[in-house]
Amino acid sequence: MADLTQSPRRHWRIWLNSLKSPWTVVVAVPVLVAIFDPDMVGTVVDFSIRAFLNTLPFIVFAVVTIAYLKAAGAEAMIAEAFKGRETRMIFLAALLGGLAPFCSCEVIPFIAGLLALGAPLSAVMAFWLSSPLIDPPTLLITAAALGWPFALAKAISAVALGLFGGFAVKFVASRGFITDPLRSYTTSVCGCGPSPVSGRPVWTMWTDAPRREIFRTSFRENALFLIKWLALAYTLEALLVHYVPADLIAGVVGGEGIGPIVTAALVGMPAYLNGYVAPPLLAGFIEQGMSDGAAMSFMIAGSVSSIPAMAAVWSLVKKGVFALYLSLGVSGAVLSGIVFQMILQ
């Protein structure tokens, strides 16, 4: 009897969880537009499909690239950044952070091991700040939605933020304010896990059957992930462009000066979804009046403060270091937005 009563509840929970998928929004939006504004449904759907198809070549290239890096074992290269002199480590960690094919939870055991082995927090912070901002897939998605100048500026900002954070932490640590950053850590399964291959990278991965299987698995998983989130992104962008008044966007984060840039950083922290959804939405915001500097500030602050990125930091370090991470991320986002806006003027 207990099984009979529990089974419907279990099925009900499964059904509710399935509604949380981005596909629910992708399907629901055209239906709702057809109900409340039937004359616009064709325009909204056409906008979303065209935007997605324009990005499709970038999606394919990005998925192939990340699958290749995964199968080759490119994660092993990242550990080399944390050897040698501290200044050298900071530079390499900031640079490689943007190339690391880690997911937000996969980086947790990697960083935990480095901190436990005594790697300086300055280099770890440089990697931690630059890593959520850019990687090969998000670089290509950003370029497709916002253009290569914006994408390259974001990549440069990622490295610059890593350097800024790394040397700031080095200065603070040298004054004795950070003595024991690591909280007690216990491993847990997050879904993606560590790389199945270890040791030196094997760039001719296609000669090894297990690595070919890793490539196929990674290709399939990342393709489904990108398609799902970009379908959501372009659906939301279509709504934004056609229904949100341009004057509203321009009044909040438009115009010149530092005000809109700071506002965008503060809004980006809680509002950010992920690096694949944000570029199309920001393209819509810019079209509606958002300044380029504010868009850059929004994207960088949101990347650093996204839930996966913050969860990775919170799970490993104490509250003071976590607060330092957030303050460095937000201040770096504002500085990046100001510099980018000045370059464009």
From TrEMBL:
PANTHER family on file: UPF0718 PROTEIN YCGR
Q: What is this protein called?
A: Membrane protein
Note whether Cell inner membrane occurs among the keywords.
no
Instruction: Say which species the protein is native to.
Output: Litoreibacter roseus
Membership in a protein family: Belongs to the UPF0718 family.
Location(s) in or outside the cell: Cell membrane
Transmembrane segments annotated in the record for this chain: 12-35, 47-69, 90-119, 139-169, 223-243, 249-273, 294-316, 322-344
The principal localisation class reads: membrane
